[in-house]
Amino acid sequence: MAAAEPSRTAAEIATQPSCWRRARQEAAAVPGLPQPGEKVAVVGCGTSWFMAQAYAGLREAAGQGHTDAYAASEFPAGRRYDRMVAITRSGTTTEVLDLLAAVRNEAAGTATTALTADAETPVATAADTLVTLAYADEESVVQTRFATTALALLRAGLELHGPPAGGVKSVTDAAVDAELAVTQPLPPELAAAVQWTFLGRGWTCGLAAEAALKMREAAGAWTESYPAMEYRHGPMAITGPGRAVWHFGELPGGLAADVGRVGGHLSAESTARGLDPMADLVRAQRLAVAVAEAKGYDPDRPRNLTRSVVLR
């Protein structure tokens, strides 16, 4: 019997290293990226919001300026920024379009930049500057390569003004790690778990939240996400045999022993093998597909979801 064709989602996941390399190569010519010293808000919905969180953490750690991340629906009215960066794969997300319109009408002096996959959508006229990542667009409902390519571009924009801070790898090195992440087998303990808790620190908190979302979207899985140091303040109670804890970034001291003591399985490839956390997110995306398929779900057609949320 011939092997089943991989899902469209799995095929798109595998293209991420090349997408990140292209983003790095083109970053210097991309208009509207935040400049050092600007006060910046980064907004999005769902996956895009979590990429915004990751970028905000990276930019502040690099000392390039005050950076806040918001769900587009929760942006605090009246707060002023030099620039707003909106991430929207579809270019049609209602909350993002409404926010950009409000900023244009009410926040004179705030420049707006939109990162999207489709230039022929309403966001093209809603933002001052449009950045189109058409090469990272997806057929899948569940976002993978567009989101990480947007983050790769924003990371590359930071690198234009100085080397990554705090031991963070370059986008070029992250792409090398991602080549491994798309091919190496996943530990069977992860695929066999019945519950997953994703943890991060600093910029990787956004990646942890995104990993948990991918598992919920594609596989209908029971997942949670927290800042790593908050894990022992309650969430640890859910861990036990048959349940997994996945940490992005450098592992806090004592956490591995605590997870082991209660019988959980720990995945910490950023620490164990020095894997870039964004590349480690690729592994979590692959896990989401594997768990979905093991349940008999189609990861290309997730339950209750559409590619874009349009509220009118």
Helix/strand layout:
Elements: H1 8-14, H2 16-26, E1 40-44, H3 47-61, E2 67-71, E3 83-87, H4 94-106, E4 111-116, H5 123-126, E5 129-132, H6 145-159, H7 171-181, H8 188-192, E6 195-200, H9 204-219, E7 223-227, E8 243-248, H10 255-261, E9 265-267, H11 269-272, H12 277-294
Helix pairs in contact: 1-12, 2-6, 2-7, 3-6, 3-9, 7-12, 9-12
List keywords for this structure.
9 strands, 312 residues, alpha/beta, five-stranded parallel sheet
Computed CA radius of gyration, to the nearest angstrom: 19 Å
- What oligomeric assembly is this protein in? single chain
Main sheet: which strands, in order across? 2-1-3-4-5
Q: What is the terminal separation in angstroms?
A: 47 Å
Q: Quickly give the structural class.
A: alpha/beta
Shape: globular
Give the helix tally. Answer: 12
> Could you state the order of secondary-structure elements as H and E?
HHEHEEHEHEHHHEHEEHEHH
Low-confidence stretches: none
- Overall residue-averaged pLDDT value: 94
Approximate helicity band: 40-55%
Could you tell me the number of beta strands?
A: 9
Beta-strand fraction estimate: 5-15%
